[in-house]
Amino acid sequence: MARIVMKFGGTSVADLDRIKNVARHVKREVDAGHEVAVVVSAMSGKTNELVGWVQGTPKVVGANSPFYDAREYDAVVASGEQVTSGLLAIALQAMDINARSWQGWQIPIRTDNAHGAARILEIDGSDIIKRMGEGQVAVIAGFQGLGPDNRIATLGRGGSDTSAVAIAAAVKADRCDIYTDVDGVYTTDPRIVPQARRLKKIAFEEMLEMASLGAKVLQVRSVELAMVHKVRTFVRSSFEDPDAPSMGDFLNPPGTLICDEDEIVEQEVVTGIAYAKDEAQISLRRLADRPGVSAAIFGPLAESHINVDMIVQNISEDGSKTDMTFTVPSGDVDKAIRVLGENKEKIGYDVVQNESGLVKVSVIGIGMRSHAGVAATAFKALADKGINIKAITTSEIKISILIDGPYAELAVRTLHSCYGLDKN
Ligand code: ADP
Ligand code: ASP
Ligand code: MG
What we know:
By secondary structure, this protein is an alpha/beta fold. The protein is 33% helix and 25% strand. The chain has helices spanning 16-31, 46-55, 58-61, 70-77, 79-94, 126-133, 160-170, 204-212, 220-229, 293-303, 333-342, 344-347, 374-384, 408-418; strands at 3-8, 35-40, 99-102, 109-111, 120-123, 137-141, 144-146, 152-154, 175-180, 201-203, 233-237, 256-259, 272-288, 311-313, 321-329, 351-364, 391-395, 398-404.
């Protein structure tokens, strides 16, 4: 007997029939004698609709409006998960399974005060553990907890993954299964590249890069938590027959295991390709080349919570003026330009230029640490397709390349095949 946390994403609970299907997956594990806690997302599309209600009518409460209140945003958008947790508990009870729904505040899952993007600080798993021991399935609303102000706080988009891993760590689960609409983590988004291959295993560090660089199959924070707390996490499909014998294989369930790199025997040089849309580039021209200039630029941007990503600075020709280019999310461009304008004299530049609608494509693999020439292969493959590179950044285990938006899919497919990732 083991303790399992099962998480079901939006498409897996999109309607009542799918919720009944999810109940069959849960029943399989209960019948096998396991203690089970379930984490659910809102029905697919629901969170978008709720966010739209809060933010979509600028005349009433646009996110930049002085009337906008992040606490009430959370009160509204957390409701989607409340609905699915209750519905799944009912579906389970209808199958004679003892089940009870839990909202984040009832457990409680304690978070910090960053409404809309809160971090989980602490979970009191004792009540759930006790009830699971009595044979009750806990059906927990994902994506939410209780802030220090005693109000509902949500964890950022995709946050139910994080709820699930955090709960798995808190109740010391033997496994955390993330059920979604694909049957595992692929070498790249299988919706963009049909030749993508499912990975049997992926290292925590690689998954962390994949998720941070745009692969939304897992929320970044969930991977961090899984890595830190050593939660055995599988990504698998809720659309497979719940009663197929392989689905109940405890040690080797169908899907992808996120694990320590030592567990991966055949390590490839490149494991996957990720992409992030809606990047924007900002360039400061004829910038004074002096100590402190970077601090003068990026300090105020950071204070305004603008997430700066790739940074490229030219070596100046005459030692007095240079150019600086960096990227921010497209949605932050106007704010960034405003902040740079307010600090123009302190920074000392001539003009600021910007371009939106760019895409960052990234090549990821821990095998890169010990292999030369990985970047050169990407540059050549993109050049052969006539794709212009606007900026490049690298780390030990990834290369990120900024390109024009319309080339995104071509670039992902090109990189995927140039590293031999296409399935035969
Ligand atoms: P859920 O609602 O279950 O949380 P998400 O839509 O958040 O599901 O995440 C699953 C989706 O992630 C898939 O449908 C797929 O299109 C996308 N995805 C992006 N990159 C990858 C990848 N490398 N492997 C698998 N899926 C990926
Ligand atoms: N329902 C939330 C969202 O759509 C959380 C999640 O699905 O993980 O972002
Ligand atoms: Mg998700």
